Each structure stands twice: as structure tokens, then as C-alpha cells.
Amino acid sequence: MKRAELARHSNGLGFTPRDAVRWLAPAQLGRTAVRVVLASVFADFGDKRELEGGFPGYELDLERLPVAGQPAQPVVRDLGLPGAGARAAGAEAAGTETASVADDLWLDFTADLGDGFDATYTVASLLAEESLRVDGHELRRGKVLVLGGDEVYPVAAPAAYEDRMVGPYRTALPGGRSPGGAAVLLALPGNHDWYDGLTSFIRLFTRQRNIGGWRTIQTRSYFALRLTGGDGSPGWWLVGLDSQLGQYIDEPQLDYFYNTVTTRLIPGDAVILCVAAPYWVRATEDENAFRQVHFFEQDYLRRRFNHRAGTFEETGASVRLWLTGDLHHYARYEETAQGGPAEESLPAAAGADPRRTQLITCGLGGAFLAEARWLPADVTLPGSSPRAGRRFALAPGTFPGVAESRQFRGRLANPLTPFWLPLRNPGFGSALGVAHMVAALTLWTVFSAFRGLSFVDSLLSLKAGNTGLLALTIFAVPLLLLLLLVTLGTALGFAREPRENGAGFTVSRGALWQLTALGAGIAVVLLLPWPAAWPPFLTLALVLAVIFATGYAAGSEAFAFFILRTASGEVASWAMSGQAVEDHKGFLRIRITPDGNLTVYPVAVDRICRDWNLQDNGDGGLRPVPAGGLPPLRLFEPPVTVAREGFSP
Predict the structure, then answer these.
(1) Distance between CA atoms of 458 and 444, rounded to whole angstroms?
(2) Which pTM was predicted?
(3) Contact, 515 vs 478, CB < 8 A?
């Protein structure tokens, strides 16, 4: 059965499967815009992270997980509660048993997930599998699942979280399939999680409850967890930063990390740093984009402030792997050897030199696919000293690549595909049709009044002359103005720098595209025969119907071409968000071996599941399962190995 039919069984499922968000549908666009504006104002005048300083700041520990039914962190013995001894012993036994299952530690990372049911549940079902066989590699389910941001779309709300994220993940891995709370879930908020001021995120992820077989253990919107090592032995840390819509890192958050991470780092420790957005890419357009995370890396991970001596001292630790989502594609930047040229330093095989630091973006957990053709070939980030920059080169495994991106983008303007702009975004074509009708009626009314004629008489009088030339002129004038504007704007650099000085240029282009489409509609009206014997109201109704139809088709096509001809910026991103592509998803499966090496397996899901069967999940509820089995998997690129220690700073 399809998603719409599944939605009729919402009582048995415990949630309502939702369709993918149609980002350019007028109603959706309006609601989202209002929430974004409110969230931006909130970010400037109120920061809920400041309140998190009063939340518990316990040290998270994988080997002190609770028995079923007990709070997650800390183990109750640390709170001095009645009966703590017996329960703590049970927790220790559970932790010891979990740790002895295997020497390797597995983690999963996914981001940008809470969108349409089919895509989100497909990824959740794959993450829930005990083991996956991908390109000859046996990949075990992660003991830790990291959600890298944007856990819900389009905006955060309790019902949206329940239907678009919690319900699918709870159903994909029921508690009975992961007994004893062995699977841990950590979440990082993205910009869409912040659109209600982080209220729903905090209630969902910081109360240390189960989401199916995954257990939330964090107490704040950020987290730190030692994965391996300890007791004087170096190992791996997992750290997640909350950057709140690109704002500064707040003092309570910095205090938390100083007490739980910075003071505990020892030489040889390696850090997996999760951030809400790929700031290394944004730094190519905004030099301040990477400043906050660089400050955190330098002053809280690479070195620490010695309060007694009043100076900084090196920790001997380093960030070896950066993980993020936000951009809905897969891309990896790899550190060049000793700062050498990107062209000369990039190895032929992925991860050929495990000493290289890796920057990975994988925002393919369920939201629409985005293009990656605009990514810079290399980026330069600040190093440990002002003069020591670090260069990173874009690895070959990026998806979608240049060819795929070009193919995907073009579908927005192709009426023969289901991804055509008005078909994929309900109400968009109709809204343009109405707008064209209002504009045409207004212009024609003014024109008729100026000539002292009725609407119909004015129309018929125009057909007395060279109608073809007049129709061509009405269509060609805005088109020529558009070509002139584009030529001048390109020569002046407006198209290359839309954020700096091209906003007016972009709006003007969009307006001229629509005027050209409106001119086409009026030209069609002029070329059609309109018998004088017809009643005026019938002629008017038919004229408006023609204008509506051309506004729907030509207006939508003009808007699609306007998007496709925009080189960069927010408008350019609509080429993919307007299609809401649900296929081509993915996630990262990560293995840490006893020798300290970390290997990243970027798993690709080219086709999501769209047909489902319902089965009993064992507790009286229903659980969808793919009618044709789980989809085939592949790797975006060969596994990438990262050593615990990298190049000398």
C-alpha cells in the first residue's frame, strides 16, 4: 500500500505518515516564511541556550547505560537515590555485557531527516537493521546514532516531530528489537529545529527517554561523549555543537564543554566534531562563517586555558573528523598533505592517507535532494596560528555530481516529468494564473478607460489593425528588456554576487520573466477570434480563462527558467527544493577499531521504498515493512579511514 493508504491506519501506527514538504506551494511557503522571520527575531532577542545552563551537565558514558525503565544518565547511584545500589549494579552489568559483544565500536550518522514518510522511514529502517551488506562490507548497526540537525520539516512543532521523525523511528526499531537500551541516540538541532525556539527539541531529546529501541541520553541541545580510551589511554570523543541559527556559542555551552571535555583531553585524543552546517563551505563566501567553530576547536579542543598559570596549554588532542548535514547532498573535503597544492596532494584512492583530517557533509536522511555542483574545488581554513592555513580538497565521490545536478535541475522546467514546478507544488500554477488574471484585468481596465471604451469594445478595436505585429510587440518588449537587464547585470557583476548587491537585480529579473509570460498570454488573447455577437460577459470570462491558463503554464515555465538561470543564492536552491526529490538518500556508518583507526562508510540509497505491507509489531500496534524488501545499497565512494593522530600542527 502507498503512504496515503497507510495514513488511514494512523491509530494502529501511532502517528500519521506525511507526504514530503512541497516547498514552493504558496500556502506552505507563506507559513514557513512567517516562522522563519519569527525565529530570526527570537535568535536576536532571546536565546534558549542561556537557560540550558540550569539543566544537568552530567558526563555521558557509554558503559553506564541504564537498565530498562531507569533514567539514562547519570546512573541513579550518582544521585544518591534510594535503592541506587541494586539498580546501579544492574546498569553496570548491562554496560559490561554490551561492551564485551565486540571489539569494534560502530556509530551511525544521519541528518536532515524528518520530511516525507517514504524517505524518512526507508532510512530509519536501514539504520534499524542489525547488519547491512554493502559492496562486500558487513556493516553492523551503530551503538550510537547521531542525528546531525533538522530532525523535522518544515518547522518544529510537537505534531510535526511525532509524525515526521519520532513515529517513523520508533516504528522502525521497536524497543523489543534493541533490548536493554543498548542503542543510544544523540541529536543536534539544525535551523528547522530552532524555528519554535528549540522548545520541542528540548522536550523530545533531553528528557532521556526511548524512541523505540534508541535511548536519548543527552541533557542539553549539545553533547560530549568519550567513545574509546580513558583512564590515561587516548581515544575518540564525539562532540556536538549547537550554533543556534549561526549565532555565537553561548557561555553555558562553553562551560559545559570545558568541564566535560577540555579538562579531560589527553595527548593523542581524537575528536569527531558534529556541527549544524558545513561552515567550511560557507567560509568561501563569508570569511566569518568558520570563526566560531574555529574558536571552539582552538581554545577548547587543541588547547585549554590554565587558570592558575593564566596561559593556554596544548591538550595534544585534535579534531580528526568533522560531520554535518544542512546541505542535502554528500560531499567530503580532505586535508592536503602538509598544506601542499590541492591538485598535487589529493590521493587517487579515498582516504589513502589516514593522517588527513576529513570534512564530511551528509544531509540525506529524508529531506529533498540538493545539488552540489557549486561546491568549491578546495577550501582554506585557519590553522593553529594566524599564518598557518589548512587546505582541503573536494574528494571525487560527491553526490550529486556536476552531471547529475544538471540533469536533476532541468526537470523543474520539463512539463513531461512529474517534477515540473506546478505539478510538484500544488497551488503554485493556480496562484500564478490568478495573479496574471488580476494583472491583465487591471491593465486592460485602465487601457479601456483611457480610451473611453468598454472592455470588449477595446479588445475588438485592437483587432482592426495589424494584430500579429501588436501581439509580437507585447510579447517581445518585456523579453528584450529581460535580455538587456541580464546582459548589463552580468557585466556589472550583479549575477556573481547576489548577496552583496544583486537582490534588486534578481527581483527585477523575476518580474520581467513574469511580464514576458503575461505578454504571451495577452498575445494569445489578441490572436484568437472573438465574435462581436457574443455576450460581453462570455467574452470577458473566456479572456480571463485564457489568461489564467497561460499564467498557469507559461507563468510557471517562466518562473522555472528564472530559477534555473540564477547562478547562486537562495533562488538558485529552489531548483531542487521545488522538486522535492525523495530518492537518493544516504547516511554514514562509522567503525572504530581497537587500534584507534576510524573508518567511514558512506551508504547510498538510490531508490527509497514506496510500497508497504503492515504487520503486527508485537505490542498491539502496526509496523510498515517494505513490500519488496529493503532497497539495494551501495557506497558513495570507497571507505575512508581516519587515523587517531594526524599531521603535526
Answers:
(1) 8
(2) 0.86
(3) yes
